[in-house]
Amino acid sequence: MVGVIGRNTLDLVSRLGEFAMFVVASFRGAMGARRLPRRIVRAFYEQGALCLPVILIVGIFTGLVLGLQGYYVLSRFGSEGLLGALVSLSLVREMAPVLAALMIVGQAGSALAAELGIQRNSEQIVALETMGIDSHGYLVSPRLLAAIIVFPLQTALFVAIGLYGGSLSGSVLLGVDPGIYWSAVDRAVEMADVRECFIKAATFGVLTISICSYYGYNAHRCSTATGAQAVSASTTRAVVLSSIVVLAVDYAITSFLV
Amino acid sequence: MAAPLLQVSGLRKSFGSQEVLSGINLEVQRGQVFTILGPSGAGKSVFLKCLGGVIAQDAGEVHFDGRLLSASNPASVADFRHRCSFLFQSNALFDSLTALENVALPLEQTTDLSSREIREQAMEALRQLEIDTFASRSPSQMSGGMQKRLALARAIVTKPELVFFDEPTAGLDPLRRNAVFAMIARYQRQLAFTALVVTHDVPEALVTSDRVALLEGGQLRFNGTPAEFSASTLPVVTGFRDSVEALGNTLAALQTPEK
Fold first, then answer.
1. pLDDT tens digit sequence for A194-244
2. With a cut of 70, which residues of chain A have pLDDT below it?
């Protein structure tokens, strides 16, 4: 029993160390990478444009539900006028960074892990190394750098569309005065909230894209499967672990910043 | 005799308790087509990957153009990578890039050439391999033979001195197999690179190689010219030749209609 715990702990520490080295190598790879901007633009497209529909859809429905639930709770206390504050603070502080990150992981993160896994299986990553190309710098660095920008941008969009969704259910459907709704939004959200929102989004971006890249890049080392099944298993692990990390780190950042 | 371009001494590699390469010594002269023959699972690809720096060896030394390749001397490894190319069994082409972009990739990422120069050199490599009309196609839209030529175009675009060919004919039909060996021999003469080929296609290798070696049981059992290989009475060589011949006879018998 003690032996098993010890082995697992050592394995965990070793994996964490490997992951840290992977992230460092990926950031360092950006320094030596040539024609990096073009690769970053492609990563912007993968994490930005391709994820836009899901961000818009989930954002609008999150705002609609928040408006609806918030209205019925606040109306019990005669405080419907605070609906804008409730929707905006919920979105800016918690829901937008977390949900936007989860949506990008589901769309771009899974695709990234699968793509790298297939590239590993078909020897493309080895081919890069034999050509003298740093595979971290070519494949991972642009995605990490793009994530630092794209995740906050997608989160900002999520907030904007969520606020509009809240106003749709609150003002258009339930009769809260639009002026009261938007002025409550304006009064409630402070600079510190926006800063917290962007810090969370950028952190989630770096962490989730690193995790997805790490699992895809190391798909050949999957202990439970080989070949196509290893790619599938690595992709699943990458998405599940990224989602858990988003929620855990959200709690950690919130407890530091609140 | 001139100093060898590639010199290997005492190369060893194990995976767990299984020793795949047990002390290999080899010299490849500049301008040669050197083929390593051997049955499947003999460790040919592992040997090639150790030489190419894809897999780290457990022991032994590899000298390229007189310089020891060692992880503690990154400059020698970088110089080696710059002067060598690798053609993989699976071709390792990028489907997200066009044929032209695949060939341009090593130039883009490892040289300071302008975009125009890169394009010109990549197109030239495609022209040499007679696939320039497919420049804008994705590798997945090309036939197996054309993909092989595209992979070779990418391998030669940096004008390497040494090209490693890892089972270049794996999975190809006999006609294409002949075409690939002819292609290697033709472009090796035209572009004057040194070729180190790993294969188990004996007849084709004997025709196109300057020198052949037989790898079996983790050791080089034979190293000589194709003529010497054909004439050799060493049991391990005759055994290998017989097994290849027997396979050919079995296949021929299968194709003969029963009376």
1. 999 999 999 999 999 999 999 999 999 888 888 889 999 999 999 999 999
2. none
Nearest-by-Cβ selection for A131 from B90, B93, B106:
B106
CATH number at residue B133: 3.40.50.300
Tens-digit pLDDT profile for residues B20-73: 999 999 999 999 999 999 888 888 889 998 988 888 899 999 999 888 887 777
Q: Please state the separation of Cα B63 from the chain's center in Å.
A: 18
Q: Name the domain count of chain B.
A: 1
Taking each helix axis from N to C end, the angle separating A96-104 and A52-76, rounded to the nearest 10 degrees, works out to 150
Contact call for residues B212 and B206 (beta carbons, < 8 A): yes
Whole-angstrom Cα distance, residue B67 to residue B78?
12
Contact A35 B109 (CB under 8 A): yes
Q: What phi, psi does B10 have (nearest 5°)? A: 60, 35
What own/partner pairs with CB < 8 Å and gap ≥ 24 does A74-78 have?
none
User: Could you state, in order of their start, the residue ranges of all structural domains in chain A?
Assistant: 2-257
Instruction: Give the Cα separation of A60 and A100 in Å (integer).
Output: 12
Residue B141, in any domain of the structure: yes
Alpha carbon separation from B202 to A73, B89, B96, B197, B214 (Å, rounded): 81, 17, 35, 12, 10
Q: How far is B112 from chain A (nearest CA, A)?
A: 9
In chain A, which residues have their Cβ closer than 8 Å to the Cβ of B53?
A: 129-130
Q: Is A186 on the interface with B (CB under 8 A)?
A: no
Residue of B nearest to A120 (CA): B92
Q: Which of A36, A131, A136 to mutate to test the interface with B (most CBs of B within 10 A)?
A: A131
Q: Is residue B152 part of a domain?
A: yes
Six-digit token string for B246: 């027997």
Question: Which residue is it, tokens 């439970």?
Answer: A224
- Which residues in chain B are closer than 8 Å to A123, comparing Cβ atoms? 88-90, 92
B134 pLDDT exceeds 90?
A: yes
**Alpha-carbon torsion (A163, A165, A170, A176), positive or negative:** positive
Establish whether this prediction's ipTM goes over 0.85: no
Q: How far apart are the first and last CA of chain B?
A: 59
